[in-house]
Design goal:
Blueprint (H helix, E strand, L loop, with lengths): L1 E6 L5 H18 L15 E7 L2 E9 L8 E7 L9 H16 L5 E6 L3 H5 L4 E2 L4 E3 L2 E8 L9
Parallel strand pairs: 4-5
Antiparallel strand pairs: 1-2, 2-3, 3-4, 5-8, 6-8, 7-8
Pfam families: Acetyltransf_10 (PF13673)
Keywords: Transferase
GO molecular function, one term: acyltransferase activity, transferring groups other than amino-acyl groups
Length: 154
């Protein structure tokens, strides 16, 4: 079980295929939400993922400032169903925040959170900055982290 963080240009074809497959399986199929999952932003992003038995066990897309928002962002956060309940989501998100703050040297991070996950993201210091709204038929809330977190051992 190994964590990886790679810029788009560093991904091999197998990694890219697995990432896009898992994102589509979760966001389009599982959530029954037809939308353009491949949105053109991946090429400008970092991709954080955990491999377990050569399969994606957790994944997040890390967007530098200016790709989606003026601030850095974290999106496409997934843990496939067979890996849920193992604590991967928390470890994934802590690593994502740490990478943006430590490696990209960005303090503010904006996310578009599914409303039911606001408590989860709030545990990392994110605060709501919008009212609830529908995005592709799913309630979302924009959230912002404004302070540098103390780096956690992950």
């Amino acid at each position: 079980m190994t964590w990886h963080i790679k810029h788009f240009n560093e991904l091999n074809t197998r990694e890219l295929y697995q990432i896009l497959k898992e994102r589509t399986d979760i966001f389009v199929v599982e959530q029954n939400c037809p939308y353009p999952e491949v949105d053109g932003r991946d090429v400008d992003c970092y991709h954080l993922f955990k491999l377990e038995n050569e399969q994606i066990a957790a994944y997040a897309r890390l967007l530098p400032p200016g790709v989606a928002y003026p601030q850095a962002s974290i999106g496409r956060v997934i843990v496939p169903a067979i890996h849920r309940g193992k604590g991967y989501a928390g470890e994934l998100f802590a690593r994502a925040v740490d990478f943006i703050q430590q490696e990209l040297n960005e303090v503010e991070i904006k996310i578009q959170a599914q409303e039911y996950l606001c408590r989860f993201y709030g545990a990392y210091g994110f605060e709501p900055i919008s009212e609830s709204y529908l995005e592709d038929g799913i309630p979302h809330v924009d959230m912002l982290l404004k302070e540098r977190r103390v780096q956690q051992q992950v």
